[in-house]
Amino acid sequence: MRYDQDDRESSNVEDRRGQGGGGFQFPGGGLQIPIGGRGGFSITSLLIIGAVLLLFGINPLDVLLGTNGQIGMPQMPHSDRPSRSPSDIPGLPGSPQKQAAGDDSEAVFVKRVLADTEDVWNSVFKSFGRDYPDPPLVLYSGITRTACGAGQAAMGPFYCPLDQKVYIDLAFYDELKRKFNVSGDFAQAYVIAHEVGHHVQKQLGILDQVQKLKERADDEATANQIQVRTELQADCLAGVWANLNDQMKKRLQPGDVEDALNAASQIGDDMIQKKMTGRVVPDAFTHGSAAQRVRWFKAGLETGKMDACDTFNTSSP
């Protein structure tokens, strides 16, 4: 993708990286937890607390073995995060030799992509007389608080419709490269554009309708199929964005589209299931097969029109 020093960076990015526990902090540095007696916690209560901590991926012993009987969330370790070279992100200004050590080129890239989504979708919504509220994007490490519950890096990038924010741990890009052979700056942009596509769905009332349909679903397989159509529509909207963004700003370079199509293919449910379990269970799909994700992304990319993204009124998505 073509970016240079003059390209706008979105100001709608909240950086929670380095905040121990991704934003889970007790005021005053700790919380006194008395054990037993009047006003204290029973053993049962402590077991419940321990279960909650384990749910968040935190070892209760790391918490309880503090000083002065205080309990505080431990700092999330950063040493396990894979290192990343700026040269892995083409399209950013300056050669690797000119980039200062320790610069935050990944975050800069994310901010520029988010700015492009803002410009495109503001223009689209304005064309049919609607306002488009720009979604905040949260950068975090490991775990963070969201209105939809605890967000964890293992979940991958996600959109929370309750607070209308996009969340991403940048280590996800390293996971894509290492586990799924997905690389390239446009592939990374596609990931962001997909989550922003969910924000577009929210503004159009689609996500609210989807939630009602899922609540009325007779079984989990039916609910999953509804979710698949929702995700495929977000893929298509990412394609629409890519088309319009290139028309507006001439961002695409040779190989970019191939990178995005490879990303869509490699993170299809069938591909992930094969890698993880060695078998494919279509009823458990939540995002769509590789072929479906590629097809719908291409539908948006080739037309640049939102009406090409009606995944809900087709016999088979």
Automatic annotation (TrEMBL):
<dbReference type="InterPro" id="IPR007343">
    <property type="entry name" value="Uncharacterised_pept_Zn_put"/>
</dbReference>
<keyword id="KW-0472">Membrane</keyword>
<protein>
    <recommendedName>
        <fullName>Metalloprotease</fullName>
    </recommendedName>
</protein>
<dbReference type="Pfam" id="PF04228">
    <property type="entry name" value="Zn_peptidase"/>
</dbReference>
<feature type="region of interest" description="Disordered">
    <location>
        <begin position="72"/>
        <end position="104"/>
    </location>
</feature>
<dbReference type="GO" id="GO:0016020">
    <property type="term" value="C:membrane"/>
</dbReference>
<keyword id="KW-0812">Transmembrane</keyword>
<feature type="compositionally biased region" description="Basic and acidic residues">
    <location>
        <begin position="1"/>
        <end position="18"/>
    </location>
</feature>
<feature type="transmembrane region" description="Helical">
    <location>
        <begin position="40"/>
        <end position="58"/>
    </location>
</feature>
<keyword id="KW-1133">Transmembrane helix</keyword>
<feature type="region of interest" description="Disordered">
    <location>
        <begin position="1"/>
        <end position="27"/>
    </location>
</feature>
